[in-house]
Amino acid sequence: MVVPSQAPLRMKKTRAVGIPVIDLSLEERPKLCQLILKACEEFGFFQVQNHGISEEIISRVEREGQDFFSKTACEKQRAGPPTPFGYGCKNIGFNGDKGDLEYILLEANPHSISHRANSISQDPTKFRCAVNDYIEEVRKLACEILEMVAEALWVEDKFIFSKLIRDGSSDSCFRINHYPSLVKGDDNDDDDWSGRNPNINPQLFDHQSKSSNRIGFGEHSDPQILTILRSNNVGGLQILSADAFWIPIPPDSDKFCVFVGDAFQALTNGRLRSVRHRAMANSTKARMSMMYFAAPPLSACIAPIPQVVSIEKPCIYRPFTWGEYKTTAYSLRLADHRLDLFTNS
Ligand code: GA4
C-alpha cells in the first residue's frame, strides 16, 4: 500500500515527553486558564481529565461505532461515500491520501445526523440520540476551553471564540475512526468486535511489519479551531513537538485530547500553535477514536483578535473566510502546510 506521508517517519524521531494533562476539577479558574493557554502555546495540545462528560454518554456513542464497524463492507457502504460525509475506508480526502483505517464522517448538526442515521444504523433513533447527546457535551467542553483561552488572553468578550462554534450554522463535524487490528479475534474489549471485521483483508498488510509502524492516519494538522478527541485504551496517537520529535500520547479512555487547529492559530496570530499529529495503527489491538472538530460557519471571517496584534507582532495571515480555508484544505494533500498559503508576505 502506498502511504504518502511515510517520509516523516524516517526523518523525525520519537521521544517521550511530559505533555500537559489538565485536571479541570482541581485548579482555580485563573490558574486553569493560564495552564490551558500555556499548553496551547507550547504544544498546541493537551489532555483533560475530570471533564464532567458522563461515561454513559461516551459509551453509548462508542457502542454505536462498534456496531457500525462490525457490519459487512456492503452494509457499511450504504452510509458512504465520505465525499465529504459518509463512510470511508482507507481513502482520505480527495487527493490520493490513504491510511490503514475506516471511518464515519458526519456533519455535527442534529438535522444532518437524523438524515444520515437511517443509512448507518438499524435503530436510527438510538444512533441519532447517542451521537447528538455526545456532540452536545463535547461542544460544551470545547466552548469552555475556548472561553478559558480568551480569559487568559485578557479578551474582554470571553465568548469571542466560542460564539463561532455555538453559532447554529457552525460547520463543525464529527468523525469516528476505526484502526483495525491485524489479528483475528484480537483482545480489544470483552466482546471482540473488531477482530472479526470482515472488511479487512490481512493480506493487504503482508509486506508491512507487524510492529507498530503502519500509518493509520498520516501527519497533518486539523484545519478547524479546536478538536476534541477521545479514544479507547489502545495507543497510536502521536503529536509532533516544536523541535520535530514525535511524542506518543499514552491512551486513556477517561481523558479527552484537545488539539489546536489551523483556524485557532490564525485567530491568535500564531500565538497558539496548530499541532501536527498522526495515528499509528496498532497491529494487535483495534483502536477506535471519536473526534469533534469545532469549526465556525462557512462565512465567518478568520482574522486575528486585536489583543494579539502589535507593531512588534504584525498580522501574519491575511483575513480569510472559513469556507475559503476549507476549500483550500480539500484541494491539497493531508500533510500540506496549508496555513502557509495565507501568510501576508
Ligand atoms: C483533517 C481533520 C478532519 O479529520 C477532516 C479531514 C479531512 C478528511 O479526512 O476528509 C481532510 C483533512 C482533515 C485535512 C485536509 C483535507 C481534508 C482530508 C484532506 C486531505 C474531516 C478535516 O476537516 O480535515
From TrEMBL:
A Gene Ontology molecular-function term? metal ion binding
Keywords associated with the record: Dioxygenase, Iron, Metal-binding, Oxidoreductase
The record, for Pfam families, names: 2OG-FeII_Oxy, DIOX_N
Catalyzed chemical reaction(s): gibberellin A1 + 2-oxoglutarate + O2 = gibberellin A8 + succinate + CO2
Enzyme class per UniProt: oxidoreductase
Taking every annotated instance into account, which residue ranges of this chain make up the domain Fe2OG dioxygenase?
169-296
- Which SUPFAM superfamilies does this chain map to? Clavaminate synthase-like
What's the superkingdom here? Answer: Eukaryota
Q: What is its EC number?
A: 1.14.11.13
Q: Where is the signal peptide?
A: none
GO biological process terms, alphabetically, are: coumarin biosynthetic process; gibberellin metabolic process; response to molecule of fungal origin
Homology family: Belongs to the iron/ascorbate-dependent oxidoreductase family. GA2OX subfamily.
User: What's the name of the protein?
Assistant: gibberellin 2beta-dioxygenase
**Which organism does this sequence originate in?**
Perilla frutescens var. hirtella
- Taxonomic path: Eukaryota, Viridiplantae, Streptophyta, Embryophyta, Tracheophyta
